[in-house]
Amino acid sequence: MRNRSFQSLTLEHRSHSIVATICNFHKDAYQVILAGVKGGPKEKRLAAQFIPKFFNSFPELADAAINAQLDLCEDEDVSIRRQAIKELPRFATGENIFRVADILTQLLQTDDTAEFNQVNVALISIFKMDAKGTLGGLFSQILQGEDIVRERAIKFLSTKLKTLPEDIMTKEVEEYVFAETKKVLEDVTGEEFVLLMRVASGLRVLQTVNGRQQLVELVVEQADLDQALNPADPDAVDRLLQCTRQALPLFSKNVHSTRFVTYFCEHVLPNLSTLTSPVAELDIQLEVLKLMAEMSPYCGDMEKLEANLTILFTKLLEYMPLPPEEVENGENSASEEPKLQFSYVECLLFSFHQLGKKLPDFLLDKVDGERLKDFKIRLQYFARGLQVYIRQLRVALQGKTGDALKTEENKIKVVALKITNNINILIKDLFHNPPSFKSTVTLSWKPVQKTEAVAAKRLSSEEMGSGAATKKQITPLPRRDARQIYNPPSGKYSSSIGNFNYEQRGGFRGGRGRGFGARGNRSRGRIY
Q1: Which parts of the sequence are annotated with region: Disordered (predicted)?
Q2: How far lies 291's CA from each of 39, 113, 286, 351, in Å?
Q3: Under DSSP, is residue 5 helix (H, G, I), strand (E, B) or coil?
Q4: Helices (DSSP H) in 398-448: which residue ranges?
């Protein structure tokens, strides 16, 4: 047998059952099968089937068998590669599981769709045999492999882990995933950070208050909150935005946003006008203010509450103009009227209202008389302009039914009405003596809850009134990937309502090199 060529063996024994019988009892025959990877297409296809089939019968040839199968996985013939990849899970026994997982992870770099899908199927197959061993191979390539392999391995984890049942993703396995994920997060791009946070936040072991707090701490470390923000650095601004977006879903009454809110007050708001946007079409100032508003309800005890409230109050005043100097018979003079930037004011007022609950005497005890008087004049002027817009919007929407409200123009008007109603309610609270912080509003861009959504029907005057219950939404609004700015010209009604910018939350726009973390530019020492 030893002197026979693989080709002659296949010619003499065309029946696979005969070849199988020979291999079962003859080590020499198995070695000839291994040598078949150097033969022609027919020999390679046969080898791709029989090498794994009798792998366990010859443990002393394990390394040679795996290497031979790996040669077939790299063959020029895609059909041979697919066959070899399909059979790879048969080698995943005992200590070989890590090696097979490592090989399959490297094979994720293929550009052939069918081959790529075969690799995915094979990885899932060995996951069911040994999840922790498979993860070892995946994370080994994520930490040390080529960029394309690392990228696809991370995407594999972010999409596939959540589909695996609890008997595979045990507590021990999930804890291993979290420990390895923390190692990877020491050096990631923005896109990788988002995907890895998706992996970690989906782990059942972290669906507790303590688990969510651990996730927040991970984000805090990535956000670099111990360092001052350089507003002129778009990468630094982008990192802060991205980290804040990842932290937002984790905040609750038990998991506080205090560190982020404090950082925004101390480092972001004072530099708001000089922030460099990482994306040309993004209104960076509004985006920052929206994030601040969304975080503010979950802020815990703040060490420098009065100082930070003062910063927030000062910024609010910037967006609440004084009335024109010349006012006669209730009509504005010919001089240019100030702009009423409703979207910005909604965010700032909401944040101030939320933090003000923690120091309800701030306006009376911490703001001097002249400044408080100035603030009330601004509030009154803004409130007057607000009432005009609310009336105009109510008239424009009166009698509109479900389908009519779905046009782009009317969607804009509905959102505008939500913004102005929210501001009106918050201003009324601040006009109380002493100021009140009891009212509740839903931020205009927040998605409508099912219990709040009103079926398509005629809008009643109650629903469009400024005093309507804030939880009773007018109509289902666009999801939060349709972010909008309401900024009509002041003093006059514009039939187009205003200009709206649309932007999507999520990953970075365009590619950037490594450097998302706090360790500057670095190389991972890839093995090529």
Answers
A1: 504-528
A2: 63, 39, 9, 10
A3: coil
A4: 408-431
For residue 332, the model assigns a pLDDT of 53
Q: Which residues pair with 327 in a beta bridge?
A: 332
Strand partners, 328: 331
Contact between residue 172 and residue 132 where contact means Cβ atoms under 8 Å apart? yes
Distance CA(426)–CA(348), nearest Å, equals 11
Helix, strand, coil shares of the chain as percentages rounded to 5? Answer: 60, 0, 40
Give the CA distances from residue 87 to residues 66, 74, 115, in Å, rounded to whole numbers and listed in that order: 11, 14, 13
In whole angstroms, what is the distance from residue 400 CA to residue 478 CA?
17
DSSP 166-184: TTTS-HHHHHHHHHHHHHH
Cα 109 to Cα 116: distance, rounded to the nearest angstrom: 8
- Contact call for residues 29 and 23 (beta carbons, < 8 A): yes
Of 261, 250, 254, the C-alpha closest to 216 is 250
- Which positions ≥6 away from 479 have C-beta within 8 Å? 447
> Cα–Cα distance between 261 and 239 in angstroms, integer?
16
Phi/psi for 332 (5° steps) reads: -70, 150
Task: Please state the rounded mean pLDDT for residues 336-353.
Answer: 90
Judged by average pLDDT, the poorest of 12-26, 147-161, 269-283 is: 12-26
Q: Which two tokens stand for residue 194?
A: 């988002």
3-class secondary structure, 332? strand
Distance CA(49)–CA(482), nearest Å, equals 53
Task: List residues bridging with 332 in a β-sheet.
Answer: 327
Distance CA 409, CA 192 (A): 37
Q: Provide the token pair at 163.
A: 């589909």
- Position 183 pLDDT exceeds 50: yes
Place of tokens 């939320």: 354
Q: Which residues, other chains included, contact 169 with Cβ-Cβ below 8 Å and sequence gap of 6+? A: 131, 161, 203, 204
Contact 486, 445 (CB under 8 A): no
Written as one letter, the residue type at 417 is L
Residue 239, SS3? helix
Whether the CB-CB separation of 459 and 397 falls below 8 Å is answered with yes
Element (H, E) at 351: helix 342-356
The better pLDDT of the pair 24, 416 is held by: 416
| CA dist 53 → 9, 50, 428 (Å) | 17, 5, 78
| 8 A C-beta contact, residue 257 and residue 251 | yes
161: Cβ contacts below 8 Å, ≥ 6 apart: 169, 177, 199, 202
